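In this section we walk through a basic example: taking a raw amino acid sequence and producing a predicted 3D structure, encoded as discrete structure tokens. The instruction is simple. Fold the sequence below.
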Amino acid sequence: MKIAIFGAGSTGCYLAGQLCLSGFDVSLICRPIIKQTILANNGITMSDYQGFLATVMPQKMITDIEQTPTAYAAFDVVFVTLKCHQVSSIANTLIEITHNNSSIIFMQNGLGSFDTIKDTLKHCNLLQGITPFNVLQQTGGRFHKGTEGVFTLQQNEHTQTIQTAMQAQGFGCDLHPDMAPVIYGKLLLNLNNALNAITDLPIKQQLSQRESRRQLAGAMTEWLNVCQAANIALHQYTKVKPKWLPLILSLPNVLFTLLAKQMLDIDPQARSSMWEDIQAKRKTEIEYINGAVVRLGKQYGVNTPINRAIVAQIHKLEQFV
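The resulting token sequence is shown next.
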């Protein structure tokens, strides 16, 4: 099975590393700076907050595929790890580097980016996946997983093979036949990405502050209200049902610390991908996360002032950088 990671950044490189260690032929389609970093450090180094450490070199790193896609053989599986706003521009390239039985797995946060491209790629299997954990690029070509969770993919023949191989190496990989509840449930947790970028604090430190948690609780409540109005089911990612998360987040610090130990079992330096985008002066995915809450709120008649304010704050930070 020939696998490509299209748009390999922090999450894509971590995924590539796990797939390489699981025995797959993996190519990175990436920016030149990512290729240079990996070559300079003799491979992708993966680490996590529980002490895991490994280095592996992908089979190939491609930086010019959008200019000459026909120069490369077709891939059996392509993981698209680009940001949401970049997805719609790669349809023609994806057609050139896949075949009729290929699986293209879209790994974007939030809602909406998949809809912009799926109608033009009907020749192969279109799937979705999520990364329910945090990965940040560190110095020395290291990609560090700072929170718990495993790659979660839509189920088909290809992803079943991937799951089997990854689990044999001790890596988790969850499969679901229906990704909609999974993606909607992940959005509930992703609402903190923007707040983490705004506070400019590590996630663990941010969540230790009650006022920041109350903002997150308010944003989550708005999404839960939208989901209720739209009759949308949410996958449960934590030990408590999604509807209880705002209440737990709003508790005084002492009670929150006692009840939410799992939330705080993360690397002390872990930060959100949106924080990383702001620091790197890149456009964020805010319109596909908190912005999606605002749009669906309007559609179903649910007021979403907290998420609307968060969107405005992130746009200000994007202009500032």
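Looking at the output, two observations stand out. The radius of gyration is 19 Å. The chain has a mean pLDDT of 92. In the next section we compare this with other chains.
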